[in-house]
Each structure stands twice: as C-alpha cells, then as structure tokens.
Records
---
Amino acid sequence: MAKYYTGRDGRLLIDGLEQVKVTNWSLTGSLEVLETTTLSDAQRSYTPGVQEFSGTAGLLYYNDAANRNDAATALKKIFKTSGVASTDTVDMRLRLVEGSTNHDVRLTAYITSVTYGASVGEVSSAQISFQGTGALTEASL
Amino acid sequence: MGVYLGNVGNVELIRKSLEGVKESIVNPSDVNATRDRFSFDFDEGYLISGDLVEISTTDGTTLDFVGEDIRLTTQAGDLLTTQAGDVLISNLQESATDGMFYVFVDDIGGVKLYDNFDDSLEGSTSGLVALSAITRDIPISVEVKNRGGRLLGSVREYEINTSREVVDITALSDQHRQQYSSLISGSGRLSAEWDYLKEGDKEPVNYLMQLILRTEIGSSFRAKFYVKYENTSAASGSFNAAQTNDQLWWEFDAIVTNSAVSFAPSEVILGNIEFVATGPIRLRAKTTPVERLLQEDGSRVLLEQSSDSLLLETDESP
C-alpha cells in the first residue's frame, strides 16, 4: 500500500521504553571507504572500511501523571556526578510505524551531548545527540 | 440579556512613571520668588503640567525655597484631601525636607508648584505654592508619583485586544496538533477629540500625546477601560435599576507606542493613541450583590412557581 511517513508514524524507544513527548529524531549512517587505487588504474577504486552511526533526538521536558520524565532520564546520562562508564550505553530504537508493522533501526549507543534550557514563551525541551557503538542490532526498514 | 451601547464605556487615566528619581541642584538664581517659579536641570519632556511630583532634599536639609505650607500625607505618602479634593495643609510655620506638588511647566522650562491638579494644568495664580528666595544650593531629588485616576475627556472610541500565545507541543505519534498556553499580551487604541485644556475634571487627550515624547521616564500610564461605567443603563433588554451603578472595566499598565492627530477641513481634530499593555491585564467588576431573603438556617426561600428564590425588596432608585 502506498504510504508517506510523517512524524505521526515516528517513535523513539530507549532501553525498550517508548519515550513520551518526542518532537524529533534523526539518524545518520556513514561508511568510511579505503582507497585501493594502484598504478596503472584508470579509475579510483575503494574498499569498505568502518561504519558509523550517530543521531539526534528532541524531547519535551515533561512530567507525566506518574512523574515519569524521559527527557530528564536522558539528560542524566551526561549530567551525573559519578562520571560515565563504558557500560553506560543505551539501546536506541528508531521506529516508523505502519499499522502493526514496525520499521526499526536499533543500535547500542552512547549519549554524547545533551542540551536543555528555558526560554520566555517556549516549552523547555532537551536535545540529545548519540553515537552508535558496534554494529546495528536491527535494521528492518 | 441587556443590550448595551458604547456610551456606557469610559476611560480613566492614572498618571504614573515606571522610572526612578531625578536628582539635581537648585541654585539661588534658579528661584524667582516674585513669580513663584523655579527651575532645575531636567530634560525637556521629563515633567508635564499636571504631574504630581515628590521633591525631597538629598542632604537632609529643608526645602527652603518652598513656602511654609506643609501638605499632610498618609504614612504611604498619599496626599490627604477633603471630599471636594482640596489638599489638606498644616498651619505649622516651618519648612519640610520634602513635599508633594502638582507642577506646571512653562515654555522655557520654569516650574510652578500647585496644591491641586486643576490649577496646575492652567498655570493659574490660584492654588500656586509660594516660593521663597534662597541663599544656598539645595540638592534635590524629584520623582513623578502615581496619582488618582481621572476620566479621559471626549473619547470617541476605544478598542482593547488581548491575546494569548500558544506553544506547539505536538510530539511524534500525535494525530492532532497540541498547544500549550503561554504568555498573555494586550494592546489597543483609542480616539478622542483633541483638546489641551482640562474639561471639567477630565484629562485632555493631549496628555497621552505628550507621553510618547517623554523620553527620560518612559511613556507609561495606568488605565481603566470601562465596559460599563457607573450610573449607566442598558439601551434595551433585561436590566434592573439595581444594576445602574455596576461597573466593569479592564485595568492594566500600558505604554503609548503611537500617537497621531488627524486634520481634515470641517472635521473635528482627533487624537489617536495606540498602546501596548505591560504587566497583568485584569477584567474587574464591581456589581451590587443580589440580596436574598434567607431562612434561619441560612438556606434560601424558594418560590413555588419557579426555581428562583425570594429576594429582599430594595430601593430601586439610582
């Protein structure tokens, strides 16, 4: 069935938990290529190198009725007094929904930067950036 | 439902200043005791005739150039007046370190002090505070004070707009846009027949036009825009005499942002003022409560023919 996807179809799950009040997410994948061109070649040639995945997401700073605040949870990955350990990874799942079908990209990542603030006439929100580590664990696009 | 026409509205202005105190020095040559006029260094537009100002010495000495009259004030600094509006004056023959006066500012920046608003607008000889010659420099501070409201004269029309900003909080997966209420702002405009002299006890619109040029202390004023003024009635529809003195009004501080005067042959000169509200905007009401006949236990006496309750008879004359 023909379908365009919009923000209405978007979801963000962190550690298996669907985040509330997410305003946007984006994911960038890149591949480093290594040149293998040699003398006498007429065209440049490459071989695949290392893949990299990174992205960003925006969450409104919002307390739900159960006092759950996903933005604050994400912020605490960086704003913490004990420093960041190698085990402080998160399971990110970036999802587009089509009925009962989920189109997921899933990766293990470190949250690398967080920004939040308050402005007159605006809702406070948190912007987070994450850096994938290792291979994607799911890519059902 | 009553049907109300625009003539039940009114505009009441309260002169004020958002800014602080102006400090200066009065030299002996600044005081003209013969004409009861003095001056000090202030930028043009700082004072407008009719302003209520508090003049104090900053070195703790007395205001020697001001006559002997001492105005009585409350602890809050408000002038004590009679029911007729006249300022109460002490008969003690001594000078004070401060005082509150209405000012008249002439074309060359000379200042005359008055004990009432009406005379200060005209610069008349009545109500004029006598000044005395001085022999020393007197450091003073001058502050424009808030003052009781006066109706704005000859208002043709006014319009108040209030708006509330909303912030988009739509999140992923939402099917409909969601908005969150944010800041309230207000603005408006009024149009009045131009005059520069007082009309009875009313403020001329020329004052608002002067306000926008008042660079040193801002163009702020407080206003009450009446939806229904006292002693007015609905033109038709349901209305009872007990409502005659009900009053409803918007009240807020505002800053004049634009003033214009329109001239056209054979038409009345109109002063048009635009303003924006600063701070909270209140819609207030002063209505006469309905007086019901109650039982001993405080419950209402209900009528048999309807669900209404029995009211006390009142004098319905306005």
---
Amino acid sequence: MKIFKRVIPVVLIVASLWACEENGEITEVYNEDLLFNNSMVIRIPCYEYLSEKGHTVMVTGDSANIAGFPDTLTSTPVLKWDSVGVPLIYAGIFSEQILITGGNISNTDDLYWAWHSGMNSGKDGHVSYSDGVNVKNGNYVTVSSPEPLITGNHYYWAVWAWNKTGTTIWYSSRPLEFMVSDN
Amino acid sequence: MKISGVIILFLGIFFSCDILSQLNENGISYFRNDSVLVKPVEFCDSLIDAFPVNNSSENEVILKGQLISIFHEYIEDAIIEISVEDKKYVTRSADHGLFGIALPEKVKGEKLVTHIYHNDYRDLDTLVLINKEFSQDNLIISLLPKYNILVRGRVFAGSSPLEGINVTVKRNDIPVDTLITPGCFYDNDNYWNCLYNGMFISSVSTENITDSVHILLSGKGFKSLRHSFMFSEYTGNLLKLKMRYAPVIPDLSRHNLSLRLSFPFLTKDNWFIDLSYYYRIPFKNFNRLAAGGDISLIFAAHTSQYSTLPGADEASVDSIYLNAFAGPSVIFWITSPDRRYFSTYTGISAGLSLLNRGVSIQPFVGSRVFLDMNKSLFFEARYLSYEMKVKEYIFSEFGNAVDYDIQVRKSDILLNFGIQVNF
C-alpha cells in the first residue's frame, strides 16, 4: 500500500502541471511606446533600401520615433524589422495615427496597405511594398498590385504578432510615422 | 512384618527389539548379574539393574531410585509407572532425577511391569523383580535420549508476516505442539516490537531421525498449508512459510471506500479522480447490492480551432476545464462480492454538476481483486456524459482574439483503476 501513498501525490502534481502547460501564459509586460502596450517589442532597426529609381533610402526605424523626426520614404517603401519567429505576424501602413481601443486597433478604416504571414510573398522581417495589398473598406485588394502611397502625405506603419494560438498580441513595434517623397 | 531384604533384578529381554543392538553398540550395558534371582522374561526395551527397597511400614515397601541419561545428566519430570496386578502406581522424578514410590508389601518377590516416559528420552519398558532383602542403594536407571530439534518458522502472506495463524506441529501423525503466531506488541520498553511477528517455535523429539515432522498451518481466509520434512533434513534455519489466500474473503465488510484515477492514455483527454463510498445492503442471503455516494472530479481537455489570417494555418487553443460531480450511486455485484479474485460488478452513478449545470449519468462496470483481507484493487470502465461551458475564439487581425462561452456536451469512456478499503 505504500506505493499508492507515493504515487497519488505525484499523479496530482503531474496533473496540475499538465493542466497549466497549455495556457502558455507569459509574464505580463507594459511598454508604453509600443503599439500594443502589453506586448513585447519588435525592434525596427536602422536600414537602407533601394528605391525604384535606384536611390538608397535611409530608414532610421525606432530611432526616428524616439527622436521625434519622421523618416522620409518612397511611395513603395520596403519595411524591415527584427523577426520574432512567430507564425502570425502583420504589418500595416495607416493613413492616420494608429489608435488602440480596448486592446484592438480601432481606426481600421485608415489602413491603407497591409501584409501578413498568410500571404505568399514577403517574409517575416523583410517586406517590399509589392508583397502586400491595399485595403479598401476593410477588404484586401488582391486583384492588382498595390497602389503606391501618395507623395507628400504622412503615414504610420507598425508590425504586430500573436502568440501561436492567435488569441493574444505578444509582440508589437513602435508605430512609426513617415512622409512620402519621390525624391 | 519384618522384611529381611529385597533384591530387585531387572531382567530385560530384548525380543526382536532394535534397541538392544543399539545399546550394545554404544558400549552401554544395562545388565547387572549380581543377585539375579529371576530369569529374564521376554519383554521389549527392558532394563536390568540392582534395586533397593526399604520398609516404610508393615504394609508397604518403598522403592527408591534415580533416573540419569546415558550422558550422566539427571532426568527430571519423567513418569515412572509400575503395575501391580491391575493397579498402577505412578510417580514423577524430581530434582536430580530422584524418585520414590510406595508399593504394597505383597510385591516382594514379584515381577512388576514398569514403564518410564519422558518427552526427551526414549520410552523404557522393563520388569522389576522385588526381592525380600533390604538395600540402601538407589535403583539407577539410565535412559537413552531422543533426537531433538527446535523447529522455528515464520508465516507470511506475500511478504507480510501473519499473526493469528494456527500452527500444529506433528511428529509423524502424532501432534506435538499447537501454537498461534503472535503479532506485534509493545514491549517492556514501550517499543512497538515486531521481532516475533508471525513466528512459531516448537521442540520436537524422536527416536528415529527418518521420522517426519509436519507443520500444519491454518487461518481464517487462508488456504491450509502443510510443510513436511524429515528430522535429518532440518538444518536449524528459520522456515519461511508462505500461505496463500483462500478464494473467498471470510468476513466481508459492509462498508467500502474507493479512490479511482484515470489518465489521458486511458481516456480521450481527461483526468479523472473519484471518491466513492458504498454500503452493502443486508437483505437475507442476498448480499450483492450496495448503495452509496460518488464524488468525481474531471479535468477535461477541449480544443477550440479557428481560422486566423487568410492563407495562414488554423490556430487551436487547448484548454483544461474542471468539472465536479456528486450524487448517489448503486452497485450490483454480478459475481459474489466475497470472491477474492475478479469479483465483477456493475453500477450507475448520478452526479449533479457542482460547477456547471446538469446531471451526469455514469454507468460503469468493473472487477475487483483483493490484496489482503480488506484492501483491494479494481479496474473499471465508466461511461461519462456531461455538459460543460467552454471558450471559443474569433480571430482578430487588429488585436487580441475575441472569446465567448458555449455549452458543449462531452462524452467519454474512462478506463480507470483504483484502490478500495473495506471496513
């Protein structure tokens, strides 16, 4: 009978551990600068890309946000970020400042261009403008190449990603403002 | 009446008796030829020796003597029985083997049939001739020791020593000792002493080392066990005798308490813990129905699957939900409940959900195997059907998923095992 006295507590402990395992909870974080405050950071480094005219465009990434000077990008920019290696990730360019209400982006009508990991082209951490699609009235326009951004306008872009079950935003970048210029 | 003297001669005639040759081989002679007045008569295991007789009164004579072994040890507590006509005169040897016995005067000149018994010595049957002259000398009688062994053993059921087992030790078919194995006890130092738990010890003597020793064990709820060996085979080691349980529990208790467990490899995805109590209902000779209560906990897994980003794989969320049920339960024993092995039962529990709404009806069938007299293991298949509230999710491209609760019905056949205590 001694064997049962030892086995039962072990069984109960294992049961408890097993029951908790699938929840996948992470320690709660708070990053005020990020698009989603309760997420972990997706860093946007300084990088360069070649415009369609062959010019090198400098993107200062997170530094621009910190310094308060928006980047100037071309109308078909290339977006880069440090990959966080999750299957569900989304990048969007908004025509207005991105607003968060109740843990969700509320001004989805201002979403002008989008790319996500379900699309065939582009990859996590490096997306060309042509890899994504325009969004009109909440729908993805997939029948044609995306319309370039309007020169002279200000836009906001950000990247966010979910946990593997897709229930919670685990990662997000700082929302970065930029101006479009053809030069 | 004046008795001038008595001479007693023991004439032993070893007629077809092995003992004679054995004694002679050992160089021990029980014959003394002085004052032999009577011819030896035919008698088994006889001894011839000198004898003294004193007059204590006019009506009786006193026969005095001493019993010693052939190894010159005094023999105490031996029975000396002398037959005079139809009457028997009996005495017992005291310290230093001394004995004395008063006989009627008429025995003078008579041959008296004499028997001497002692557990540790060979029986001696002889004739004593009472002479008419007095002597102050003791009658010295030598006895031949038997072979003696101290049989020690411990009785087990499995690896547990057993107390309260009846032990009968026999030499050939003659009972020698009847014992009951002791249990643990508080000794003089107030320690719980289990040194002699289940042990027995018995002294067995014989004249022939090819004799058999039989140890018969019996106890309630156990099959009888007989262990036999020859005297010459016994090495003095502790005998470890394992008894087997009888196929029927002798006194099956009316109450039982059970704990059941089930794991995901025995079920779909559920962990199951159940505690139940049953009382076997007395109804004349029908003892197969028991009623009681059942409390069960179920850790049920539920997977919520939903689509995410267009073109991306579906996502799934595995969650564990706790359900608890409590309610009445009945058991019917298909085979007799006092069977030790594979006593099979069926039953049904009606569990009221403690955390969700609804009632769970749980029919089950199982089989029980007793480990000892009141503890058993059992294996059971239980059908479980119940409703529970689970979360489902709707993916959002712009933030956290939206969750909502739905009520789902779950059903599963749980294979579980458990332990039961009857009391």
